[in-house]
Amino acid sequence: MSKRLEDFIRANHNEFDELEPRMELWDNIEKQLTLKSGDQPKKQEAKTFSLGFVLRVAASVIVVMGIGFALYLHNGKKQGVDLAAINPTYAKQQVQYASMVQTKRTALKELAKSDPQLYKEFNAELTKMDSAYKKLSVDLGTSPNQERVLRAMIRNLQIQTEVLNQQLNVIEQYNQMKKEEKNEIKSI
Questions:
Q1: What residues does each domain of the chain span?
Q2: Could you list the residue ranges that cross the membrane (predicted)?
């Protein structure tokens, strides 16, 4: 179809050139354009911001986001796992064993005043167990099987209690032997 139109235009080219619009037509168009351009409001210029202003705004946004993130992390760490919600029986056992461990540690500190080197060795072993307990405590919050982790925590506390009992017995026997040696020396 465009081929036929092109052929028609070429064939009648001379007739198209003869027809020209009258001069008044262009004057009328020009008058209408000037009237319309006068009625149109001026375009607003685009607002520009200085680099300093943009940097201050960006820094403010970063500070606010940083504070928000810090608060989020701080609140997330405060919220511990509710042991009673996992298993009330295990929660009671955990509290019971934790208090026993704390009591026995206090007793160990009192008895170990006589031999600080021995206490230092005993405490090193307890520190390893305590770090394992703390790792389990952290894992409790993220574990899909929280009851199993809670049982492992209780087992750790039980072992700590047994080790502390043994350590207390060793210290008592050691102190008893020292007393017997002193008594023998006095009797001689």
A1: 92-187
A2: 53-73
Tokens describing residue 151 = 């049982």
- 137 neighbors 80 (Cβ within 8 angstroms): no
Q: Rounded to the nearest 5 degrees, what angle is found at the Cα of 35, between the Cα atoms of 33 and 36?
A: 65
- Which residue reads 């201050």 in tokens? 56
Burial of 127 (0-12, 13-18, 19+ CB in 10 A): exposed
pTM of the full predicted structure?
A: 0.52
Q: Is the pLDDT of residue 16 over 50?
A: yes
Report helix, strand or coil for 80: coil
Which ranges constitute the DSSP H helices of the chain? 2-11, 13-18, 23-39, 51-78, 83-86, 88-111, 116-142, 146-187
Encoded tokens for 186 = 């006095």
Cα-based distances in Å from 74 to 66, 71, 179: 12, 5, 53
